[in-house]
């Protein structure tokens, strides 16, 4: 490694950094704890987070992103773990992975339409890279590896699926950090270097957004209730365990017209009412649902992906709670 001692320092800074507010002043913000029991973590899910360090900030800035690190969920002993390239490629408990991110914020995306056998193939490819050193130069080689390269190569080699996209550094927002990038690269600005960014994983057509504790991006549009018009399909978790599906239909003004839930066992439950709290110029809203069993639920929903994805949390009057994630149905998704 051309910059061995410097690389080690950077990696240690990345792991141990504390949040710094704009202007260099430290701002104490209480991290939101992550309750694993409430999450729906499945093997193959991709998790993203941010490190509030110099390197993390440069990665986020260069990639125009909230993220500077990612990993993939693997199950060990029935418990969720994460395989990641942060130093040597390693597997750590998911609980520890969440704690290392700035304010414990994370985003979770899931591969679309893959079987357990296919996900197992992806995991085996990722595990072949265990112990490989971290690539602080972000080169596309086999000697060293970085976080999003690990995820990309695991899916590509196992299934021929490109989760994320390969981009040249020169096409990214490098202009504000030429000296830092040059130092990392060993003395030359590598604008033709090809890399895969954590941000590109989130926007891959092969994954869907499950949940995120990051605030919406400033360039994410605001909406009124008409954004709900059309048909939506998605899934929900129940107390972090059972998984069901849901479909919802809204009229042109965003008024609810029909919907149903399908439980894990295949039982179909009609949604009889879905009262939406009216909203304008917003990225979130509340909905109160009542189903044919007489159960009432309250959902706090965020509007993401330019109005084509709804994510959020829900709780009912029986004390159950969970996550929800729905996408707008199009001719391609029907």
Structural class: alpha+beta
Distance between the termini: 50 Å
Work out the helicity level: 10-25%
Summarize the biggest pleated sheet: 8 strands, antiparallel, barrel
Uncertain segments: 1-25
From N to C, what is the helix and strand string?
HEHEEEHEHHEHEHEEEEEEEEE
Strand content: 25-35%
Overall body shape: globular
User: What would the average pLDDT be, to the nearest integer?
Assistant: 90
Question: How many DSSP helices?
Answer: 7
Gyration radius, in Å: 21 Å
> Architecture of the largest domain, CATH level 2?
Alpha-Beta Complex
Kindly report the spatial arrangement of strands forming the biggest sheet.
9-10-11-12-13-14-15-16
CATH superfamily of the largest domain: endopeptidase domain like (from Nostoc punctiforme)
**CATH class (first level) name of the largest domain:** Alpha Beta
Number of domains: 2
CATH topology of the largest domain: endopeptidase fold (from Nostoc punctiforme)
The overall strand count is 16
């Amino acid at each position: 490694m051309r910059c061995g001692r410097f690389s080690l320092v950077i990696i240690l800074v990345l792991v141990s950094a504390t949040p710094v507010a704009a202007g260099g002043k430290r701002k104490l913000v209480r991290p939101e704890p992550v309750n694993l029991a409430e999450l729906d973590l499945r093997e193959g899910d991709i998790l993203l987070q941010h490190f509030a360090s110099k390197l993390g900030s440069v990665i986020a800035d260069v990639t125009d992103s909230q993220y500077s690190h990612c990993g993939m969920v693997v199950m060990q002993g029935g418990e969720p773990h994460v395989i990641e390239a942060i130093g040597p490629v390693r597997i750590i408990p998911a609980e520890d992975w969440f704690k290392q991110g700035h304010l414990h914020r994370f985003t979770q995306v899931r591969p679309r339409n893959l079987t357990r056998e296919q996900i197992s193939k992806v995991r085996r490819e990722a595990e072949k890279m265990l112990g490989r050193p971290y690539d602080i130069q972000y080169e596309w080689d086999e000697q060293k590896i970085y976080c999003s390269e690990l995820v990309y190569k695991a899916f590509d080699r196992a299934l021929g699926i490109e989760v994320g996209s390969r981009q040249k550094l020169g096409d990214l927002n490098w202009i504000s950090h030429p000296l830092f990038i040059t130092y990392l690269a060993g003395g030359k600005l590598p604008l033709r270097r090809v890399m895969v960014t954590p941000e590109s994983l989130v926007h891959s057509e092969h994954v869907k957004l499950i949940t995120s504790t990051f605030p919406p991006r400033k360039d994410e549009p605001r909406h009124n209730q008409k954004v709900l018009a059309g048909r939506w399909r998605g899934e929900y978790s129940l107390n972090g365990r059972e998984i069901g599906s849901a479909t919802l239909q809204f009229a042109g003004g965003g008024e609810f017209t029909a919907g149903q839930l399908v439980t894990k066992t295949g039982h179909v439950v009609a949604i009889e009412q879905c009262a939406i709290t009216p909203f304008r110029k917003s990225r979130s809203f509340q909905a109160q649902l009542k189903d044919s069993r007489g159960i009432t639920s309250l959902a706090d929903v965020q509007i993401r992906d330019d109005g084509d994805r709804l994510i959020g949390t829900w709780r009912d009057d029986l004390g159950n709670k969970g996550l929800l994630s729905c996408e707008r149905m199009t001719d391609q998704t029907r």
